[in-house]
């Protein structure tokens, strides 16, 4: 079950072929900073809704969180290796 944060933003768990992830939807009005999407290497401007993800379990932490365009996050399993921007 998703865990609500004090701000009302919900973080949910998602499992895929690439592991287990915490996924948080960030509404456009809550986004105050520019980010670079690791899926397409394009800018996510402030004010644009997107998702923040980080791996869960023993190998991940919130320090590993990344900001993605939602379509890029949903397509991450269909992308060729090497297209993601290195950390």
UniProtKB/TrEMBL annotation:
Q: Which domain of life is it from?
A: Bacteria
List the residue ranges of the region (Disordered). 1-25
Spell out the protein name for this chain. ATP/GTP-binding protein
């Amino acid at each position: 079950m998703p865990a609500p944060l004090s701000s009302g933003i919900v973080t949910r768990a998602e499992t895929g072929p690439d592991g287990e992830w915490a996924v948080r939807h960030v509404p456009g009005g809550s986004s105050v900073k520019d980010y670079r999407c690791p899926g397409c290497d394009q800018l996510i401007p402030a004010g644009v809704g997107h998702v923040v993800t980080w791996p869960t379990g023993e190998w991940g932490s919130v320090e590993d969180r990344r900001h993605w365009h939602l379509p890029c996050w949903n397509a991450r399993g269909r992308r060729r290796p090497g297209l993601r921007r290195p950390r």
